[in-house]
Design a protein that fits this description.
The chain is of the alpha/beta class and 466 residues long. It contains 14 helices and 19 strands. The strands form six sheets. It has a five-stranded parallel beta sheet with strand order 5-4-3-13-14, sandwiched between helices. Helix 4 packs across helix 5. The longest helix has 23 residues. It is globular. The two termini are 44 Å apart. The structure holds adenosine monophosphate and zinc ion. The site of adenosine monophosphate has 17 residues, from helix 1 and strand 13.
Length: 466
């Protein structure tokens, strides 16, 4: 069966292929770089990575754009509190975000687009919306008039017909004609960073950046747009209103939304304080691939409850697969080929593909793989598994790892400090002197896992990073 996704817009599972050539034009909403991202954020970004990798495994090329929101209220507030310019402040967290993505093996999109590098594009878009009567100005800020877009609500499937338009509501200290209306351009408040533009001094609202950068780089109709479920309303609804008012074309054909990472029944979020950053988790000694596996193992449309036990189970699952890989590489098998097992491997590969094609049902895909690994381990124990079965089994693991990307261990070169290496070497020297060779070997292994290579010379132990 072909690749299918649940489309939030149609509320149906639909067969997916790009509209034009073989290239998928996709846009995903990126981070707001006001602090370190938490692993809830990374659930959504891991889903996007699986999506990218599976689209490519399905034979498509990618043109994927992701924004970096580098101006918003929280950023302005935090930067001011730390006496840093907006640029200095956001550079720190953009770098941290990209480092974390690297650790989690998230492929970079074809284009990363910081909002503040597109101010002129946004000004142009707002001018066009002004001309086409979709906006109004109040106290120097420019708002999108939702009443000018009758299809508003079509993504979140919300019926706004009972809404009393025109009631004056003061939200966020901005004067709006209708509570749903949202700011395209925000007049500066006292002491705030602003841009001098043809629209007057100010800064763009959050929603307009995505519409403008998506259309600029991907055209008027995207094949696919994705983010977390909290973005459906109002962010994506607003993106549709702006974009379709600008182009009169459907903004995106497919809308995919990832469910939340939860902690004890509540969304993991900064505001609730129930969050862990990736750094918090790694500092507790977990490997990034365990985090990646945990986030990937539950299908993206199901809420995922985060626990440290869950991370431990992820470690065990990874180890099982790595052991299987090791066996394929190092066990000695009897010559020949067991056709039944070749068939079984093909069957497992088909089930894996079918699971992923079914709206990225990672649980189903992993289920098929683990069942196969269990059976094949038994076939190895009983001698039924033959030398010529190795290649197809290894191919299945490659197929799996092109998407899940967890088989290669992280060598934590950046984690261990020079001083820690030195003290472990000193401990090893002492262990050897005390004839405790097993401890000495253990230290060597431990350092190697951290990417440190030891060399014993006459003048002592030298070390280097891999
Ligand atoms: P932000 O940096 O706040 O703009 O959020 C970045 C992404 O993380 C968005 O796509 C959000 O939908 C997503 N997100 C935020 N909290 C969670 C969570 N607890 N679980 C999954 N995704 C989340
Ligand atoms: Zn967006």
């Amino acid at each position: 069966m072909a690749l299918r996704f649940y489309n939030t817009l149609s509320q149906q599972v639909e067969e997916f292929s790009p509209a034009h050539d073989n290239t998928v034009r996709m846009y995903t909403c990126g981070p707001t770089v006001y602090d370190f991202a938490h692993i809830g954020n990374f659930r959504t970004f891991t889903f996007v990575d699986l999506l990218r990798r599976w689209l490519r495994a399905s034979g498509f090329e990618l043109n994927h754009v992701m924004n970096i929101t580098d101006v918003d209220d929280k950023i302005i507030r935090n930067a001011a509190a730390q006496h840093k310019s907006l640029e200095e402040y956001t550079a720190i967290y953009t770098k941290a975000f990209l480092e974390d993505c690297g650790k989690l093996r998230l492929e970079p999109p074809e284009r990363l687009t910081p909002a503040t590098q597109h101010i002129e594009d946004m000004v142009l878009a707002i001018e066009r919306l002004n001309t086409s009567q979709h906006t109004y100005t109040s106290d120097g800020s420019i708002y999108f008039r939702i009443a000018s877009f009758p299809e508003y609500g079509k993504l979140s499937h919300t019926d706004f017909s009972g809404h009393i338009a025109g009631a004056r509501v003061d939200v966020d200290n901005y004067e709006k004609a209708d509570a749903r209306d949202f700011a395209l351009w925000k007049a500066p408040k006292e002491g705030e960073r602003f841009w001098k533009t043809r629209l007057g001094p100010g800064r763009p609202g959050w929603h307009i950046e995505c519409s403008v950068m998506a259309i600029k780089y991907l055209g008027e109709t995207l094949d696919l747009h994705a983010g977390g479920v909290d973005l459906i309303f109002p962010h994506h609804e607003n993106e549709i209103a702006q974009s379709e008012s600008l182009t009169r074309q459907p903004f995106a054909r497919f809308w995919l939304h990832a469910e939340f990472l939860m902690v004890e029944g509540q969304k993991m979020s900064k505001s609730l304080g129930n969050y862990y950053t990736l750094r918090d988790v790694l500092d507790r000694g977990y490997k990034p691939e365990a985090v990646r596996y945990l986030l990937a193992s539950v299908p993206y449309r199901k809420p995922l409850n985060f626990t440290f036990d869950g991370l431990k189970s992820a470690e065990i699952a990874i180890e099982r697969l790595r052991n299987f890989k090791r066996r394929l590489e190092t066990d000695q098998f009897i010559a020949g080929c067991n056709e039944k097992l070749t068939f079984r491997t093909a069957q497992a590969s088909k089930a894996f593909i079918e699971g992923m094609n079914d709206d990225l049902n990672t649980a189903e895909a992993l289920g098929a793989l683990f069942e196969y690994v269990r059976e094949t381990n038994s076939a190895m124990d009983s001698g039924e598994f033959r030398a010529d079965n190795v290649r197809t089994a290894a191919d299945l693991l490659t197929q799996f790892d092109q998407v899940f990307a967890i088989l290669e261990p992280t060598t934590a070169t950046s984690h261990i400090l020079d001083s820690e290496v030195e003290s472990l070497i000193a401990e090893r020297v002492a262990a050897k002197r005390g004839k405790n060779f097993s401890r000495a070997d253990q230290i060597r292994e431990q350092l190697l896992a951290d990417g440190i290579i030891l060399e014993d010379t006459k003048s002592g132990t030298r070390w280097k990073r891999k």
